[in-house]
Design a protein that fits this description.
The chain folds into two domains: about 35 residues; about 120 residues, Up-down Bundle (Four Helix Bundle (Hemerythrin (Met), subunit A)), CATH 1.20.120. It is mainly α.
Amino acid sequence: MSTASRNKNLIFIIAVLLLTNIAVLVYFLVFKKPEEQPRFTQEKRTGMVIEMLQKEAGFTDEQIAKYKQLKDLQEKTVKPMFDEMRKAKDSLFRLMTKPDISDSVVNSVADVIAQKQKALDLQTFNHFKNVRALCRDKVQAIKYDSAIFRMFKKMGKQMKRGEPAAESKKD
């Protein structure tokens, strides 16, 4: 086989591969729609928690009504706490733009964030403790504890993998 015919064959093969790559690229960019991640609205999360409380812990309709009141109060309480935390974190990362910022200033802002996180965690702990107080007896409390621990464990696994957690918002 001569060099000219070998070059023609190579050019033909390269052209076919190039056209195939372009066709695949066009397919994925134009025709293939990205799969939507499931979106967990607040209502869906609340419904999932209520279903868990009813099925796994045996909560009655009356207990669910009290849970909803506690959940609404919790949301009103933690929303400003999350907002304050976001502002504090924003202020920390704005410090990156200052060339000669001292470590003590950075540590001071980080300490403020840590205090806000602590307050948020304690508020969330107390919320779950208040929901637990709705249990009518020790058996129901044990079932509630088991369900809550499983929920936290599942959330932790999803967060490690970077997946959206169904119950990622603290109820």
